[in-house]
Design brief:
Low-confidence stretches: 13-27
Radius of gyration: 26 Å
Distance between the termini: 66 Å
Mean pLDDT: 86
Structural class: mainly beta
């Protein structure tokens, strides 16, 4: 069946087709590329209240030459935009007035931290090193909901957060925004001749992306190689460079309660290098994970959500790995503070040094935590990461980790990687990664094994019309990164993903369709001896995104799985060792979320190993206004094999109440009958300013394997937390 195509042929075919097709893309983009722009230093600070007054911004650089990027490149925006940029020693300022009538705004989010990318917004991307390697992102909706993150070349890292200020004001015929980014919140080299900047506005309905600068006909406009050079920034100050975050949490459960003080201290050694100390670290009130059903034999990966580990987390990324490709990751911060025996472990203290010195990026982290299973002992865990920009497009790096969270056997990992990021034929974005790493046991209690290495490489063409990613990875059967993430070893993995996307420019199609595309996915798994373990081929012959933001696709999925030992999937279903070839067909429909009620649905039918299989997934959303959001999600899996019927359900209910942009109340209820777990997390958050936060939260979890009335509690925490930020 799938055997007709092997991995290397598939990778080569998709690569050649994508590269060949890309050569036909032509456009005159020079007219949309901005020359170096001078940013004036102002003597009077603007008042950040969202209301632009002429005298506040008369010294600023005035910008009004915006251009539509999507759906049709080069079009004039329907709504005029007047933007202003300036700075002083302490802040970088951006303001804008968007002449868009209030009645046409898509502005339904009011809770800080909630997903806001489906709303109207205005923002900026700022590269203080102008090396096109990474940049800061700051965006604001008309109601003042903020989003900040990092752009790591071509990837967005939403987990990064910092302290900055923004206010908005809405009138009948326009809305305005004022932004102030403290110099203490970003890193930079003093005396740099140029920074990079992109200004960005989105209209949600109809979906329109508007930019100030466009450099590349094939790239996404928010990537770092699309930024324009800005000049004139000098005399910048970061004060003493000291930031102190004291917090106090009152935590309790059915048996006990305690008052937990914690302290985070950050010191800017240089404007581009930060040292951080955390004492008696407390993570109460942190949002819990949404846990999906696990349809594999392997453990699941969850993203980091704790502030201390999110700070400059992009520096520790290695070999092109990330949240969407985690297997083989050398450093996974969620290993810290978690124990197999004791569950959540106290972190006594931790230190971190992150930043950049010249062309060298540096990250050093060391954490002292209580030892898993032994309250009287401690465990020290450390990681060091360094990357060196050896030319504009070339970067080499190394990583070392030491320690084991379980405290049973000290382990060490060393690795090296290389990244090339540039343009092919001076126009088409091209990114490649290669890496090598190996682990070793440094205690006499464990014998160092032979196949303890992992290596691989990837190639990506992140183009809108023709996209390609291909990857190879080797993970030895003895590769054991104690501070990393590995859920499948003894592995050779091949991947090829590509799409061909068409954006109609005229006629009926252009009036009704944003784009349509063909997408193909191919995956192959072998053991380290070259014996096939399985492969998957997904074909989406038609994927359509409509002007009204409805979206749907049909997918034909073919699987091969080779089991060498029994796979106990549920209490009723066990798949025996043999080769399985099966097919699934999928229909995915997502209605436009600019309606008060919208739905995402997924329907699959076919086989799962040698069982008949059906899946129905419904995600119902109700957002009548910006104060209330309800989400009900239900995933239903049905199996039939040899007269045995089985089913799995995953149910989630989210209720978000936003009283205003400062007060919010979020509740999440989850039930997963695969793990027989029911949980509830509810949090009230009051954030009167970016440097002051109050949280009250409840986190309860129950095992209901024997029914609700026979439930046993496995998670129990109630917390009230106060946190402040002081800067000098």
């Amino acid at each position: 069946m799938i055997n007709l195509v092997n991995a290397k042929q598939c990778v080569a075919i998709i690569t050649l087709l994508s590269v060949f097709s890309s050569f036909n893309v032509q456009a005159n983009w020079q007219q949309f590329t901005q020359p170096p722009t001078f940013i004036p230093k102002v003597t009077k600070k603007p008042t950040i209240d969202g209301k632009l007054s002429e005298h506040e911004w008369q010294e600023a650089q005035h910008i009004n030459d915006f251009v539509v990027f999507r759906p049709n490149v080069g079009n004039t925006p329907d709504h005029n935009i007047e933007a202003y940029i300036s700075y002083d020693s302490d802040y970088f300022y951006v303001a804008a007035t968007i002449y868009q009538p209030k009645a046409s705004l898509t502005d339904r989010v009011l809770t800080q931290g909630e997903y806001m990318w489906d709303e109207d917004y205005f923002g900026l991307i700022l590269d203080t090193n102008f090396d096109r390697a990474d940049a800061y992102l700051f965006h604001v909706t008309p109601s003042g909901v903020k989003e900040d993150g990092l752009v790591d070349g071509t990837n967005y890292i939403a987990q990064w957060k910092t302290l900055w200020f923004a206010k908005t004001h809405i009138e009948e015929d326009k809305w305005s925004v004022e932004i102030a980014i403290p110099m203490q919140s970003i890193s930079f080299e003093q005396g740099a001749k140029q920074w990079g900047l992109q200004l960005r506005h989105r209209v949600a309905n109809p979906n329109t992306q508007i930019y100030w600068n466009l450099n590349n006909p094939s790239n996404f406009a928010w990537h770092t190689n699309q930024l324009a050079p800005i000049e004139g920034l000098e005399g910048l100050k970061q004060g003493l460079g000291v930031e102190v975050k004291p917090s106090l949490a009152l935590k309790g459960n059915d048996d006990d309660s305690k008052l937990t003080p914690a302290l985070d201290i950050l010191y800017k050694v240089t404007p581009n290098l930060s040292a951080m100390l955390t004492l008696n670290t407390d993570f109460s009130g942190t949002e819990v994970d949404q846990v999906p059903l696990n349809m594999t034999q392997y453990s699941q990966y969850f993203t980091e959500k704790r502030d201390f580990f999110l700070q400059d987390s992009q520096i520790f990324r290695f070999g092109g790995m990330g949240d969407s490709h985690a297997n083989g990751m050398p450093f996974y911060s969620r290993r810290i503070g978690q124990g197999r025996q004791s569950g959540i472990l106290d972190i006594n203290w931790g230190t971190k040094l992150t930043g950049q010195i010249g062309n060298t990026r540096l990250g050093i982290l060391s954490v002292n935590q209580e030892q898993d299973g032994n309250q009287s002992e401690e465990t020290q865990l450390s990681v060091a990461r360094v990357t060196q920009q050896i030319a504009q497009q070339h970067q080499i790096g190394a990583i070392v980790t030491n320690g084991s969270p379980d405290g049973q056997a000290q382990r060490r990992l060393v690795g090296a990687d290389y990244r090339f990021q540039g343009n092919m034929l001076d126009q088409y974005p091209f990114v490649t990664h290669t890496y090598y790493q190996e682990t070793e046991a440094v205690s006499t209690e464990e014998i160092t094994n032979e196949d303890n290495k992992s290596y691989g490489g990837s190639i990506e063409l992140p183009n809108d019309t023709f996209y390609l990613r291909s990857r190879y990875q080797y993970i030895g059967k003895d590769f054991n990164p104690a501070l990393g993430f590995v859920n499948r070893k003894d592995l050779q993995f091949y991947e090829a993903i590509s799409h061909y996307r068409i954006r109609p420019q005229s006629g009926w199609l252009a009036d009704n369709i944003n784009y349509y595309q063909f997408t193909g996915f191919y995956y192959l798994w072998e053991d380290t001896q070259g014996n096939r373990q399985g492969q998957s081929l997904f074909l989406r012959p038609l994927q359509i995104d409509l002007k009204n933001n409805d979206h749907f696709f049909f997918s034909h999925n073919r699987y091969q799985r080779i089991l060498t030992k029994p796979f106990r999937f549920t209490d009723k279903l066990t798949f025996m060792p043999q080769e399985y070839d099966y097919i699934q067909n999928e229909l995915y429909i997502r209605s436009a979320n600019n309606r008060p009620m919208y739905v995402t649905s997924r329907f699959l039918t076919g086989s799962f190993y040698d069982a008949e299989f059906e899946r129905i997934s419904l995600d119902l959303n109700y957002r009548p206004n910006k104060h209330l959001f309800l989400n009900v999600s239900r995933n239903m899996y049905y199996y039939q094999k040899d007269g045995i019927n089985d089913q799995l359900f995953n149910t989630r209910l989210s209720v978000n109440l936003a009283f205003n942009s400062e007060w919010s109340w979020n509740t999440l209820l989850q039930h997963n009958d695969q793990t027989n777990n029911f949980s509830i997390f509810s949090r009230i958050r009051f954030e009167p300013s970016p440097d002051e936060v109050y949280i009250a939260s409840i986190n309860r979890g129950y095992n209901i394997e024997d029914g609700w009335h026979e439930r046993t509690e496995n998670t129990d925490e109630t917390a009230i937390k106060l946190a402040y930020t002081y800067r000098w």
